[in-house]
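Holo prediction — S-adenosylmethionine.
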Amino acid sequence: MRIDIFTLFPEWFGWFSQQRHVGNVLAAGSKLQCFDYRETTPLGAGQVDDSPYGGGAGMVMRVDVVDRALEDAYGQAGRRPRVIVLTPSGRIFDDSLANELADEPHLALLCGRYEGIDERVREHLADDAISIGRYVLAGGELAAMVVADAVLRKLPGALGHASSAQEESFSEALGGAPEYPHYTRPPSYRGWSVPEILLSGDHAAIRAWRLDRSRERESEGS
Ligand SMILES: C[S@@+](CC[C@H](N)C(=O)[O-])C[C@H]1O[C@@H](n2cnc3c(N)ncnc32)[C@H](O)[C@@H]1O
């Protein structure tokens, strides 16, 4: 898989690429590449934004700047990756969307800054608009990392144990419910005990207990 990030802050992704699960999939042949809007902007002096039509506070990233960055990366015609603009007003990112994106061979994530990106990018250049939640970040970089992290950890070889990604919160194995609680040693700490059943060695009973807790969390909406 290849993920391209379009950003004004490519250096943010150096740290991200070094994280173990990301490093694992990159070592296995996937690619994470950054494209700096300022390096391809058709405007002078590295300009990428302008004041909003209709007035109002802040600056808006220009459509011609984003278009040129995409053109420079992929050419004018031909196959483009699935292009996703990151915006608080997009489709909310969740596990099923992460699965959908993990099946794509090539993604391009467009990070905005300032007041956001000219709407014509969403209308004419992007295939999707994705939000990581109903709050506003200063820029799309953290949102791109959230999306890339959730997608890349689903790829073979990302995690130490492949089974970790098969049965976890919101997975099919748990019927889309949150995962059950985990405990480890010591069995008692400050009088807080691990549920007896987990120490019983009765695997069928443990499985049933875990599925019950998972369903309980789902019905509590946690
Ligand atoms: C300060 S925000 C713009 C907010 C915009 N004026 C609004 O009210 O919806 C700048 C950029 O951060 C990114 N961003 C901020 N919050 C986000 C979120 N919840 N999900 C995805 N991207 C987000 C987007 O790329 C956005 O263009």
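READOUT: The two ends are 32 Å apart (CA to CA).
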